[in-house]
Amino acid sequence: MASMRLLAIIAILVQGLVIGDSQELPSFDPELAVAKVLEVAEGKVGPDVKIFNVVDFGAKPDGATTSTINFIRAFKEACNHNGRAMLVIPEGNFVVGSMLLSGPCTFQPPLMVQFAGNLLPQDSTVAAENADWITFMNFNGLFISGKGIINGQGDKKAWKSVCDGCSRQSANLKLIKLNDVLINGITSVNAKGFHMMISVCSNFVITNVNISAPDESPNTDGIHMSKTNKVRISDSIIGTGDDCVSMIHGTTNVTIENVKCGPGHGFSIGSLGHYEDEFDVFGITVRNCSLSHTENGARIKTYKNESPSKASGIIFQDLIMDNVKNPILIDQEYAALKGSVDSKVLISNVEFSNIRGTTISKIAIVLACSPTFPCQGITLKDIHLEYSGPTDHNEDTPFSSNCTNVKVNYIGEQMPPPCA
């Protein structure tokens, strides 16, 4: 009976992701949701839930035998089940190659994934172009919970091939064309490319995850989003060689809170204006987060390109900076493409509020906006940053801000001083 009540609660949580105003974030209590999903991850489910254990389909947890086809078969059976289903990845080391786990499916949502094992790539060399590693695609309802580890085994050999304009490397976990997703507790280590790549999705909750890669690993974004609506990321640790969280075109209604970022390139909106016919970005809130020894803190970046779009309704609030190089940055000259022109991305209604801590840069705030489309409605409220960089040079350079093509609304304390 208790298990039945648990499943009923989970069903309500899933409904809570999709009911209500389309512009609102999921309204259920994340702590309650995670507590219940943890029970499911421990196998506390009712008799009406059919278990699909990858080992029962021939997968070997020995760290040597390739089990790709066994994982795919287990997923397909769960996908095609006419009822509640749980895919189980038990403890052990599983070697798997590139996997596309795709619907449409007939299970009663959500598909629960009890993830306790460690996943290792079949080939530790550089992945083939655009061959992502583990991809969930094209169905509704997915709960992944457990202490499992996705280890991309990225190394210097893989990362040295990454350069500006080169093809990206494989993502550890790709989630595409999915609705109503909760990811809890898992760890992603040393991805060759992005750790989590989310595209064309809606209603996402990511909580209590741990993402790590060395500072010198390029393009290993922690969580990368595009064309996705309603996302909540919370209570997680992300440290990589690139953006902790990156949000590009078509990303809307995102809340990021209680996330520790570092090393990496901070929380980034963009790059925008890279592709033709990009969708707008709006409704982004980053709050109650900390950044330590990162390249950037709160950043919006756009290409100098012909592609027009808009980025608006953005709040960076209650952020703690620890020796961050660029704590507050709008960069509309991020990269110049062939035949580049002034950026045509209009950035408006952006607030940086209660941002405190230390920076290694004498110019701590840079707002470099487009001369063709100057930034509008930019507010800096209660900013207190202190210089913590080297003192043996630039002693005559004042601690300052730099603003171009923007009129800033200043409220409360401002350190460094406002732009002239």
From TrEMBL:
It comes from the Eukaryota. Its EC number is 3.2.1.15. GO terms for molecular function: polygalacturonase activity. Residues 1-22 form the signal peptide. Keywords: Cell wall, Cell wall biogenesis/degradation, Glycosidase, Hydrolase, Secreted, Signal. It is an enzyme of class 3 (hydrolase). GO terms for biological process: carbohydrate metabolic process; cell wall organization. Pfam families: Glyco_hydro_28 (PF00295). It catalyses: (1,4-alpha-D-galacturonosyl)n+m + H2O = (1,4-alpha-D-galacturonosyl)n + (1,4-alpha-D-galacturonosyl)m. Gene3D superfamilies: Single-stranded right-handed beta-helix, Pectin lyase-like. It is found in: Secreted, Cell wall. PANTHER family: PTHR31375. Belongs to the glycosyl hydrolase 28 family. May function in the depolymerization of the pectin in its walls during pollen tube elongation, or in that of the pistil during pollination. This is Polygalacturonase. The lineage of its organism: Eukaryota, Viridiplantae, Streptophyta, Embryophyta, Tracheophyta.
